[in-house]
Amino acid sequence: MPKLINLIGKRFGRLTVIKRAEKDKWGSYKWLCLCDCGEKTMVIGSSLKKNRTKSCGCLLKEKTQQRFTKHNHTKNGKNSRTYNSWVNMTRRCVDPNKEGYEYYGARGIKVCERWSKFQNFLDDMRECPPEYSIDRINNDKGYYKENCRWATRKEQARNKNNNHIETYNGKSQCIAAWAEETGICEETIIARLNRGLPLKNVLTTPIKILKSQSAFVECSKCHQIFAKDIKRIKQTKKMGKQHACSRKCASAIVNDQRRCEPSTPTAISVRKDKEKFPEKNLARSLVRRAIKSGKIIPLEECEFCGSDLSVDGHHPDHSRPFLLLYLCKNCHHQADSDPDKWENLATDYSGCII
């Protein structure tokens, strides 16, 4: 039996032997090795001596990736951000099926011949920083080194063809950039421009902050003390309304007021009229026909109060369908409660029908 060779401390490929372990089922000694990647693995001594095992498995993985990757620009088995930017840039300009082709290839935007190879693109633009993407400085020109940069979404949004550009003191930039620089919100700048103000006044006039004066009042529902604008307090008092600290309290106050108000007669639907009041429905139908044929001309003002709001015909007696009195909504409710009183005021249109 040959003498056992001590392999501790020796290096085989990426593996460094740490210590001897137990034998395997065939009687061969195993050795605990540390790989350059930091992983530990058990390897048979003969495999180390004959160079059959050189790593924990990471070397084979890297070689496989290199064999199946043309551009050699991957990270954790996935294409890098820079490579994806190059692929999408190229496809937008040459592939009609690619989303956004109408804004690039269809407009005549092209990629320079040098950038047809990824390595040349990488040499010119370097690695793409996180949260950045490729951007053309002049949107009407193609992709080449002098016209491209890595830019954030914010920078790209301010470099669009449809942006509103204003020039002041020799500096040209979009409304959003001016708003950020001056501290005046975009809506205010746009409103001032629409009013026709000079650009100097638009960008230099400070915003007036209106400070409303408030006072403390008590909620009429929950009796909680809260702050309210003085103008609104006066308006509420003038209209005879109550104070509410929230929508919930305001709704409760309105419901309480409705319960306290006397109920008023409500209009009866046409369907119920047909079932319960056939005589009333017949009278209505006859009057409608007479109005449609031009035999009766309806009045536009209430015959009692002179109001012109919601004026409609009223039948004091439905057995006499052409005995009519034109009343507004309020007077109509009063006439329903006391029909005998209003019958003398009605006009008989039966002579017009004959």
UniProtKB/TrEMBL annotation:
What's the protein name? Uncharacterized protein
Species name for this entry? marine sediment metagenome
